[in-house]
Amino acid sequence: MKSRIAALLIASSTMGLMSSAVHAQVAGAQPLGVSVEVSTAIVEGWSVKKSILNKPVVNDQGERVGVIHDIIVAPDHSVSFAIIAANQFLGVSHHDVAIPIEQLDFVGGKLVLAGATKSAIKALPEFQYAKMKATPKPRAEFEHH
Fold first, then answer.
1. With a threshold of 0.85, does the pTM exceed it?
2. Range scoring the smallest mean pLDDT among 40-49, 103-112, 131-140
3. Exposed (0-12), middle (13-18) or buried (19+): which is 133, by Cβ within 10 Å?
4. What residues does the PRC-barrel domain cover (predicted)?
5. Where are the domains of the chain?
6. What homologous superfamily does CATH list for 2-23+32-127?
7. Cβ(145)–Cβ(25) under 8 Å?
8. For a Cys-Cys bond, which of 22, 29, 51, 98 suits 35, CB 3.0-4.6 Å?
9. For 60-73, how does the pLDDT look when each residue is reduced to its tens digit (9 = 90+)?
10. CB-based contacts of 70, cutoff 8 Å, min separation 6
């Protein structure tokens, strides 16, 4: 089941790549959006927002140990980490941690982090987002474009 989470997240992160691969780029004729084939895959697909984000994470005993706040997609387009809020009050996170996506599983419709406890999660180093520039770089400035 763990590979299913990773596979579904990877598939959702590569939809944009698939849409650009379906159509050859011709100057002045680049299509917007996605092809019919990719659109069908999206409709029959799986939503990270609805299925994972802000959902509780439990341990093997069904005890709540955190909440998924974010999914990190690495520069190589692989889904690498889930950001879990170890301590949350009224929707405000007080201690986020990064957990490798392979450690999460779906069991009985719940997100499970085997062997986790609230204290073990809180003992992990706090995750902090890297400081971003005020304005993102244009796509043309990236090496692969």
1. no
2. 131-140
3. exposed
4. 51-113
5. 2-23+32-127
6. PRC-barrel domain (2.30.30.240)
7. no
8. 22
9. 999 999 999 999 88
10. 53, 82, 83, 96
